[in-house]
């Protein structure tokens, strides 16, 4: 390991953050990219929050509801690693505003959709926007970190999680009373996001896009390829556990509350907001804690630590359902920043590809989970789905297989 861009190894052998940061974080850029992430994910979460409305409007089954999520998530998951790989080699100055424009088109299509097919097309445009936005913005968050990579990823992620939390609240306040077409008004937020990303793009071009033909220094990998590949597989298993579980919890949470406790749509969406807002708060902790104590303890605790709450959830009353989902959101959401930075440190010089792979896989597992669990709900019940997914956080045990000692490539 040759420079400050390479992860250090702590005394236990886990990957720890690079110590010799020589610059301060670019807080203005981190704030802008986090704000744009909030706008982007807020618009995406409107689809999730609109499920009860779309289900009634187009007489959809739970399987079709899951197909909407699958279309959005699969579009994003397939393209994100390719976008990251391409931009690692050929940085694109205005890729971020272009991605936000695609999301805006999807939002407007969703507002005007006359059929289920157009709803799926709208979800695909939103997915394309995400496939461009997430790997590129994650790269810029790392560039603006000043060496505090976990902190920067948490700032970036908290914007997205806050946007995801706000979506259901706005849906309850605007879309439920005024109908599907009112979604178009949220296009104003997309325009704001485009303005923010234009400023970020100028900073990126000025500070970090090298002249044609220039070679950028790349740090050595901390482990040999075989160990890196094994660690990446373990991290992807943890992503599967997290996002398959979150897909079942969030995609069908409003239906679960309505079915089991007889809540109204607006009240159920308020509870969904509470869960998602707790997830946003939890995101703040994962990155900075990982900067201090290493990524592996955070990864271990955030996935496996959710298991007791998840196992209790299907048997709780309304009060404890709310309390348990808050605990789940706080703990589980701290995982992704730590997982992503850990993976970036395993493969230095490939930030875009790694970010695209992990965001893409996360979205893909979320989409697949929503589709599979939607079909399961159609054949059984929402309550059975919640009992079945409760065991997924136990996969956090595989974190024990992550590298513990330094290896020389």
TrEMBL record:
Keyword Transmembrane: yes
The entry's keywords: Membrane, Transmembrane, Transmembrane helix
Record's keyword annotation contains Membrane: yes
Residue ranges occupied by any Major facilitator superfamily (MFS) profile domain in the UniProt entry: 29-408
Alphabetized InterPro entries for the sequence: MFS, MFS_dom, MFS_trans_sf
Top-level taxon: Bacteria
CDD domains recorded: MFS_FsR
Classification via PANTHER family: FOSMIDOMYCIN RESISTANCE PROTEIN
Official protein name in the record: MFS transporter
Taxonomy of the source species: Bacteria, Pseudomonadati, Pseudomonadota, Betaproteobacteria, Burkholderiales
